[in-house]
Amino acid sequence: MVCYKQDFLDILPLFSYQNSQYMIKSLLFRKQAKVDKTENSAMITWGPSHIIGGEFSDEICNILQNQLQNRKSPCGIYCPEGEWKSYITHTFFGNLEERQINLYQHDGLTDANCQTENPHIIQTTKEWFQCDLSSIVKNEIYSYTSVDDFIQNGFGLALVIDGQVCGYCLSEYSIDNECAITIWVDEEHRGRGYAKMMTRLFLQYNRHKNWNIFWACESDNIPSNNLAQSAGFVLSSSLKYYEWRR
């Protein structure tokens, strides 16, 4: 288990409504995200996401408005029900689309009959990251502070065809024996079962870690939802958020 500092323990309870606790813990522990905090509220800004927690705060409202004022690209706003939701929907009315994230949790079982070797699927070891092919994967392990952090605390597979990385299956936000899966296959190679195979191999390779593995995806991403279910993931919760567009 990770040893947390007091400032972490003070902030984490403010985001108890968030179903992706592994992500919140990873961001706070690795200090990757910008955190604005008042006495009883906080906002985490991570890439295109603004995650609000705690009691309603005029100070956090002002910070959010200033950040959105300078944004030109879409972003997601996550907030608790009640006063926060009322404020967001009224203040940014006309610029919001309600969206939903589905969170799946693996049932702990793996398919013993799954093919365990495929010449195109390669484990992303420390040696592999030294080759020129690894640049695409390096760009996708942004939830870790470095390649070494990923090697030590994460796990990944790359789909390599004709000398090109055409897909990957990676752990993200791994912390406290929990992580999520992120997966991608180039459009040209979809429909051939690579995504399902990589997912099952990922689950097999990580049985010894005893990870609690999650899969988060948009509710309207039918292929991702179907793949999660076919690989043994069970819907555990869903969370609504707002996509903001200028």
Architecture overview:
The protein has 246 residues and is α+β, with helices and mostly antiparallel strands. It folds into two domains: 6-93; 105-238, Gcn5-related N-acetyltransferase (GNAT) (Aminopeptidase, 3-Layer(aba) Sandwich). Helices cover 29% and strands 32% of the residues. The chain is built from eight helices and eleven strands. It has helices spanning 6-11, 21-30, 58-69, 83-91, 135-140, 147-153, 194-205, 222-230; strands at 34-37, 41-46, 49-54, 75-78, 96-106, 121-123, 156-161, 164-175, 178-185, 212-218, 233-244. The protein has an eleven-stranded mixed β-sheet, with helices on both faces. A hairpin with a 3-residue loop joins strand 1 and strand 2. The chain starts with 5 loop residues before the first helix and ends with a strand.
Task: Summarize this entry quickly.
By secondary structure, the protein is of the alpha+beta class.
SSE order and pairing:
Blueprint: H1 6-11, H2 21-30, E1 34-37, E2 41-46, E3 49-54, H3 58-69, E4 75-78, H4 83-91, E5 96-106, E6 121-123, H5 135-140, H6 147-153, E7 156-161, E8 164-175, E9 178-185, H7 194-205, E10 212-218, H8 222-230, E11 233-244
Parallel strand pairs: 3-4, 9-10
Antiparallel strand pairs: 1-2, 2-3, 4-11, 5-10, 5-11, 6-7, 7-8, 8-9
What keyword list fits this structure?
29% helix, 8 helices, alpha+beta, 2 domains, 11 strands, 246 residues, 11-stranded mixed sheet, Aminopeptidase
